[in-house]
C-alpha cells in the first residue's frame, strides 16, 4: 500500500464535499492511502497572494514543513488552487533568497523548519503516474458506457507548474476515461479559465465565461463534464440556472469530479461518491 | 470646443516606477516585452479590461504608475496563467499582475467598493485570524462590505447548497492558530 500525505484545503470541507468523499473512496479502492495532514492551514489561494505575498508563501511553507515532519510522503492536493500555491511557494523559495529568508524567519518563530524535499502532486497525476491507465483499467467493474465526456481541466492544474502532459491541451483525463470505457469528446476549451471567484464578484463576466465552456461542451455532444477543481465544479454546476436564464438557453449538464466517475467505474457504492450532492443528476446520462 | 491633452508628457511620468517593477520577482523581464499582444489575445478577461495586458506592460515600463495601479485590469486577472505560459519572451505576466495588486492595496489606490480587492482583503483577514477559510462566512463578509442586496440574490443558491450538505456554517479554524498569528507577527515590518 502506497502512502501519501493528504492536504485537503478548505473547499473540499464545504461546497466540494463530494470531491473529498469520492477521492477518499477511490484511493481506498485502488489501495492508495491518504493520511490527512495534521492541523493544516489554508493555502491562501489566489486571493491572499494579491494582498501579501510573503505571508501567502509562509502559510504554504507551514503546511510543507508539517508534511516534511510527517514522514516526507508526497503531498496530494485535490484543489487546483492549493496545488498551484504549494508549487509556487516551493518555486519562489528555491529561486529567491530574499523570500526564503523571510519565510524561514517566520517559521523559526513557531519552531518549524521548511523543507523542499516533499513532492506536491495532484491526485489525477498520482493515479496516472503511480498506477497507470492499464492498472486502473484492470480494476474496472462497470465500464462507463453511454458517457460522453467533456474533460475540463481548468487552468491552475496545468499552469504554470503542473505536471500533466501539456499546459494548454493536456490529455491525462481523456486517456483515463477512454480506458474506463467512456467516449471522450474533443473539447478544445479544456483549459480555458472558468473565472474562479469572478462569479461572486463580477457576475456578468463570470457567467459569460462559464456559459462559453458549457455551451461548447453541449455543442460537441457531451452529456457530462468532468472537473478536477472545486471552484471550476462550483461555477460550472451551481450557476447553470442563472446561465440558462441570462442567455435564454436551457443548459442542464451534469458536472462531476473525475473521482466520482472513476468511482462508478470501479464499482464503489454510489453513496460513498457523494453523487446526491450534485445539483444536476447523472441519472439521465446513465440511461 | 475645448481641446484637452489625453496623454502625459514624459516629464509627468513616475520614473521610479519602472525601477520598482524591475525589483519584483521576475520583474526585470518586463524589459524584454516585444509588444506582440499574445497575452491580450489569449486572456479570457481582456475584453473587460480598461487596458489590455500588453498595453499595461508598455505603460508600466514607461512610468504610468497611477494609471497602472488604479486600473481594473489587475483585478480582472483571474490568474489562469495562460498569458504567462504562452509569452514568447517568458515574462511572468501573472506574477507581475500580483505585484501590481499588492502595490495597489498597499498604496490604497483601487476602486472603492469594487468587490474583487475587497474580497481579497476579507479573505486574507479571515485566514490570518483563523488559519482557514469558511466559504459561507466569506460570502457574507463580502456582501457586508460591498452590496448587501447580493445576499438576497444568493438565497436560492444557498438553499440548494444547504439541501445537498455543501454549506458549512461552523467557522473552520486550525487548532493551533496562535502559530498562524505568530508567523504573521514575525513578518511585520519585514516585507
Task: Quickly give the structural class of chain A.
Answer: alpha/beta
The average pLDDT of chain B is 92
Average pLDDT confidence of chain A is: 96
Measure the end-to-end span of chain A.
Answer: 36 Å
CATH topology of the largest domain in chain B, anyone?
Answer: Fumarate Reductase Iron-sulfur Protein, Chain B, domain 2
Q: Helix share of residues of chain B?
A: 40-55%
Give me the Rg of chain A, rounded.
Answer: 19 Å
What is the multimeric organization of the chains shown? Answer: heterodimer
CATH superfamily of the largest domain in chain B: Alpha-helical ferredoxin
Total tally of structural domains of chain A: 2
Query: Could you state the order of secondary-structure elements of chain A as H and E?
Result: EHEHHEHHEHHEHEHHEHHEHH
The level 1 CATH classification of the largest domain in chain A is Alpha Beta
Task: Please specify the SSE layout and strand pairing.
The complex is a heterodimer of chains A (287) and B (191).
Chain A: E1 2-6, H1 17-29, E2 32-36, H2 45-51, H3 53-69, E3 75-76, H4 80-95, H5 97-108, E4 120-121, H6 123-131, H7 133-137, E5 148-151, H8 172-179, E6 183-184, H9 198-201, H10 203-219, E7 224-227, H11 230-238, H12 240-247, E8 255-257, H13 258-265, H14 283-286
Chain B: H1 16-23, H2 38-42, H3 53-62, H4 65-69, H5 73-76, H6 82-86, H7 93-106, H8 115-130, H9 135-145, H10 149-153, H11 155-163, H12 177-187
Helix pairs in contact in B: 8-9
Amino acid at each position: 500500500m502506497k502512502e501519501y500525505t493528504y492536504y485537503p484545503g478548505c473547499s473540499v470541507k464545504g461546497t466540494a464535499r463530494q470531491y473529498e468523499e469520492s477521492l477518499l473512496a477511490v484511493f481506498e479502492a485502488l489501495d492508495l492511502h491518504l493520511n490527512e495532514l495534521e492541523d493544516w492551514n489554508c493555502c491562501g489561494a489566489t486571493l491572499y497572494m494579491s494582498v501579501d505575498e510573503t505571508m501567502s508563501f509562509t502559510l504554504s511553507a507551514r503546511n510543507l514543513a508539517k508534511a516534511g515532519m510527517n514522514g516526507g510522503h508526497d503531498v496530494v492536493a485535490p484543489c487546483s488552487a492549493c496545488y498551484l500555491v504549494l508549487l509556487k511557494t516551493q518555486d519562489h523559495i528555491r529561486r529567491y533568497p530574499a523570500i526564503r529568508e523571510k519565510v524561514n524567519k517566520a517559521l523559526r518563530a513557531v519552531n518549524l523548519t521548511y523543507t523542499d524535499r516533499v513532492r506536491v502532486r495532484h491526485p489525477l497525476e498520482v493515479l496516472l503516474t503511480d498506477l497507470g491507465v492499464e492498472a486502473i483499467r484492470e480494476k474496472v467493474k462497470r465500464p462507463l458506457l453511454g458517457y460522453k465526456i467533456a474533460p475540463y481541466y481548468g487552468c491552475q492544474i496545468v499552469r504554470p507548474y503542473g505536471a500533466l502532459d501539456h499546459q494548454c491541451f493536456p490529455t491525462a483525463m481523456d486517456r483515463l476515461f477512454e480506458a474506463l470505457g467512456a467516449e471522450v469528446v474533443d473539447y478544445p476549451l479544456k483549459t480555458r479559465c472558468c473565472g474562479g471567484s469572478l462569479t461572486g464578484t463580477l457576475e456578468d463576466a463570470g457567467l459569460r465565461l462559464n456559459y462559453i465552456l458549457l455551451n461548447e461542451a453541449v455543442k460537441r455532444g457531451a452529456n457530462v463534464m468532468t472537473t478536477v477543481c472545486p471552484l471550476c465544479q462550483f461555477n460550472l454546476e451551481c450557476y447553470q440556472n442563472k446561465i440558462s436564464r441570462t442567455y435564454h438557453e436551457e443548459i442542464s449538464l451534469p458536472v462531476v469530479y473525475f473521482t466520482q466517475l472513476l468511482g462508478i467505474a470501479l464499482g464503489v457504492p454510489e453513496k460513498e461518491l457523494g453523487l446526491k450532492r450534485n445539483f444536476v443528476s447523472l441519472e439521465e446520462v446513465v440511461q | 470646443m475645448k481641446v484637452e491633452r489625453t496623454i502625459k508628457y514624459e516629464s509627468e511620468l513616475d520614473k521610479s516606477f519602472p525601477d520598482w517593477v524591475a525589483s519584483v520577482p521576475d520583474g526585470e523581464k518586463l524589459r524584454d516585452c516585444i509588444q506582440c499582444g499574445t497575452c491580450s489575445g489569449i486572456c479570457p478577461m481582456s475584453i473587460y479590461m480598461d487596458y489590455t495586458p500588453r498595453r499595461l506592460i508598455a505603460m508600466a515600463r514607461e512610468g504610468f504608475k497611477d494609471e497602472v495601479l488604479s486600473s481594473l485590469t489587475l483585478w480582472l486577472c483571474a490568474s489562469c496563467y495562460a498569458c504567462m505560459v504562452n509569452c514568447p519572451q517568458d515574462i511572468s505576466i501573472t506574477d507581475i499582475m500580483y505585484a501590481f495588486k499588492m502595490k495597489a492595496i498597499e498604496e490604497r489606490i483601487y476602486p472603492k467598493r469594487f468587490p474583487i480587492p475587497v474580497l481579497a482583503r476579507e479573505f486574507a483577514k479571515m485566514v490570518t485570524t483563523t488559519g482557514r477559510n469558511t466559504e459561507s462566512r466569506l460570502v457574507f463578509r463580502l456582501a457586508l462590505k460591498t452590496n448587501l442586496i447580493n445576499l438576497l440574490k444568493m438565497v436560492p443558491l444557498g438553499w440548494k447548497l444547504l439541501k445537498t450538505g455543501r454549506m458549512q456554517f461552523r467557522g473552520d479554524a486550525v487548532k493551533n492558530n496562535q502559530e498562524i498569528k505568530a508567523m504573521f507577527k514575525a513578518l511585520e515590518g519585514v516585507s
